[in-house]
Specification:
Blueprint (H helix, E strand, L loop, with lengths): L11 H11 L8 E4 L10 E5 L9 H9 L4 H6 L1 E4 L3 H13 L3 E5 L5 H9 L3 E4 L4 H15 L2 E2 L6 H17 L3 E7 L4 H13 L4 E7 L4 H8 L22 H10 L2 E5 L1 H14 L6 H11 L9 E6 L6 H14 L3 E9 L4 H11 L3 E8 L9 E9 L3 H13 L3 E4 L2
Parallel strand pairs: 2-10, 3-4, 3-6, 4-5, 7-8, 7-10, 8-9
Antiparallel strand pairs: 1-2, 11-13, 11-14, 12-13
Helix pairs in contact: 1-7, 2-4, 2-7, 4-5, 7-8, 8-10, 11-12, 11-13
């Protein structure tokens, strides 16, 4: 992908200057091994856990670096930003630390956890539109109206340099990294990481990951020109950018080796896996790089691969749904429909089979009114916990062996 001459660049020295400015003000997030179940030896994939960063994502890095460059007059007028959530929190905290008034415009669809967190840092929050781009348009209008400084979430050299400190830390903490996989929305994070890494250690491969549901930068790179996205509705709401910008587009063309797309269910599976295996709470955007590796869309190299886990600000209700779906996909949560005679003892007989097979009943329901169920019978709906898919199939076979019609419900 490398190539494409442009006057837009990011010197490695700018990232190093940002790192000095941010020292002691951001968390030096750890590199954590991602070990497969039962795996021995050393991990091939490591996680740069920016979900453990202040405000729950990498965005505080760029926001702090940008606000530190404001002139006194700009500080007095305040700052305006548009964000789906993580940039909002970063700007709000950076502004609070600098004593600068902050107005943040967020889409009405932004997760409430991100909206409330932004307000908790003292920023004024305005909800406008259903997408980031609609919120961005309203923020631009308010910025002109107030004469404030606009802190762009990715199309700003100081923001990009701040995000690039993620790459600086990876290189400093891991000598033998040979690949870094990075989630991509507007491209600020991968632009900063790739520009720094390729200037300081050119042999390290940098790969970007976008959701197939929000692929604007991926399509732009494929086309060799900026291509606006048609839609941007994805579980990875932090990556839902429809309008890519020239600065990050050119930096990606110059420094990034490849970009891939991941599906929504792959992102959800990565969130579930990171929660269970690594004990990490990760949002959709933060799980995108891991999703690319777990799905095989990106292969680990001969050395160590680092997946950037960019954020952990996920709505608790969404986590609950993802956990349930993950358990179903693993065969550990099974929904069954069993047809039994509508008379005393039938349910006890069915549940006795479940108990003998070592499964656990979560819920039980009856359906007598369905015309497909013969008169005199009832359909019993069960939600059952099992050990794995093989155990679930064993349970269904045992129920059928008892002479009870049983099927798995979708």
């Amino acid at each position: 992908m490398s190539g494409g001459g442009t006057g837009l660049d990011l010197p490695a020295a700018a990232v190093e200057e940002a790192a000095r400015l941010l020292e002691g003000r951001v968390v030096r997030t750890p590199l954590l091994p991602l070990l497969a179940p039962g795996a021995g030896g050393e991990a091939r994939v490591w996680l740069k856990a920016e979900n453990l960063q202040r405000t729950g994502s990498f965005k505080i890095r760029g926001a702090l670096n940008c606000l530190a460059r404001l002139e006194p007059q700009q500080r007095r007028r305040g700052v305006v930003a548009a964000s789906a959530g993580n940039h909002a929190q970063g700007v709000a905290l950076a502004a609070a630390q600098a004593g600068v008034p902050a107005l943040i415009v967020m889409p009405a669809s932004a997760p409430m956890v991100k909206v409330e967190s932004t307000r908790s840092y003292g920023a004024e929050v305005v909800l406008a539109g259903d997408t980031f781009d609609q919120a961005y348009a309203e923020a631009s209008r308010l910025q002109r109206e107030r004469g404030a400084f606009f802190v762009h979430p990715f199309d700003d050299p100081h923001v990009i340099a701040g995000q690039g400190t993620v790459g600086l830390e990876i290189l400093a903490d891991m000598d033998d990294v040979d690949q870094i996989v990075v989630p991509v929305g507007g491209g600020g994070l991968i632009s900063g990481i790739a520009a720094y890494v390729k200037q300081r250690r050119p042999g390290v491969r940098v790969v970007g990951v976008q959701p197939r549901a929000a692929p604007a930068l991926y399509r732009s790179i494929q086309a060799g020109r900026l291509v606006p996205g048609e839609s941007a509705r994805t579980i990875a709401d932090g990556l839902a950018v429809k309008e890519p910008r020239e600065r990050t587009f050119q930096l990606i063309r110059r420094y990034v080796d490849d970009m891939v797309l991941v599906e929504e269910d792959e992102i959800a599976a990565a969130i579930f896996m990171l929660l269970e295996r690594s004990r990490l709470v990760v949002e959709g955007a933060g799980a995108a790089a891991v999703a690319a590796l777990e799905s095989g869309r990106v292969r680990p190299g001969s050395g160590r691969t680092v997946a950037v886990v960019s954020g952990g600000n996920i709505d608790i209700n969404l986590i609950a749904r993802i956990i349930e779906r993950g358990l179903v996909a693993d065969g550990r949560y099974v929904r069954l429909a069993a047809q039994v005679a509508d008379r005393p003892g039938s349910l006890h007989r069915l549940l006795g089979v479940v108990a003998r097979e070592g499964a656990n009943v979560v819920t039980v329901s009856h359906e007598r009114l369905d015309p497909a169920v013969p008169l005199g019978d009832t359909e019993v709906g069960l939600v059952v916990e099992t050990r794995n898919r093989a155990h679930a199939e064993q349970l269904i076979a045992a129920i059928r062996a008892e002479g009870i019609a049983c099927r798995e419900r979708p």
